[in-house]
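The methods section describes the discrete structure representation at length, but only in general terms. Each protein is reduced to its one-letter sequence and a matching series of backbone shape codes. I believe one specimen quoted in the main text would settle the matter. An entry of this sort, consisting of the sequence and the corresponding backbone structure tokens, reads as follows.
***
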Amino acid sequence: MDLELTEDQRELQASVRAVLDRECPMRLVRDVVEKGATADALWATMVELGWPALTVPEEHGGLGLGALEAVIVCEELGRAVAPGPFVATATQFVPALREAGSAEQRTAFLGPIAAGELTGALAVDDDADAPVTATPTSSGGWRLDGVKRHVLDGDRADEIVVVVGERAFVAPAAAVDATAIAGLDASRQVATVSFDAVAVSPDRALVGGPDRVARARQEAVVALAGETVGACQSIFDVALEHAKTRVQFGVPIGSFQAIKHKFADMLIALERARATTWFAALTIAEDDDRRAMATAMAKAAAGDCQRLLAQEGIQTMGGIGYTWEHDMHLYVKRAKVGDALLGNGAHHRRQVATLLGL
């Protein structure tokens, strides 16, 4: 297992960054956040370049790449605070169908995803007061009842994979009641999805067992960790540039020992989170037995990273770091919400303890 990127992976990283630098300036992010603008043009560019097909198998019109390539792309999306359905569709919906779907189900859903004709989401976190239940029906199908919370793009996706216990189903978005949540990061949409006697036909019940469903969720978690790392990288870069150019007492503030210590701590947290996330992605790509542990450690490390960099990055900026006019808050909000989705750092640290038998 090699933690160095290959030449092809570095080329992917550079090309994605170049596209986002050109097509996703902070002006676009602010239009989405402040004016409710759409990111349809950005998504159309991603579709044209084949990004939704990234981890879709080649037999379904995809590129057939792995979890590490998905993390590389997600890092760049986090770095740019890119809006749009890529994360929910390509790193949450696609793994669920690819891992737990039958050949017929993969053909039905993954081909349209690769072509950019369909978007998807993944619903895993139950409302504690109304957990989703799946009841068999006389027709051989299922009836879904209950509520799923914090579903990324849950009110915008065309199809939603719903995880109920050890099973998963594909529910058409038109059959559910999805309500957008006014969240911290307004550049992306999170929704509460309610199921009220939603009928799911037999061909929409995914056939994969609990291990396949768990693997798909792990891939989604690692992708979010990667996106959080990318947002933290921008926090670091913006704060570092400020420290190099902001002058006090006749010298840049970056020359002060206290500021140097802050950046040393931030860099260590950032590189630790990135390396842990890449390792977790590789364990998933290679179906390594350590993938459950590695996934939990990656999300925990990303959580630690965002906590430190959000605090130190804003403080390094001084008063301007707290203002709406500066872009720092956009990066911080993306990192904070990335930590919260699919289990925060504390949740995954408990997962590590459980896996260790503590």
About this structure: The mean pLDDT is 95. The CA atoms of residues 306 and 335 lie 6 Å apart.
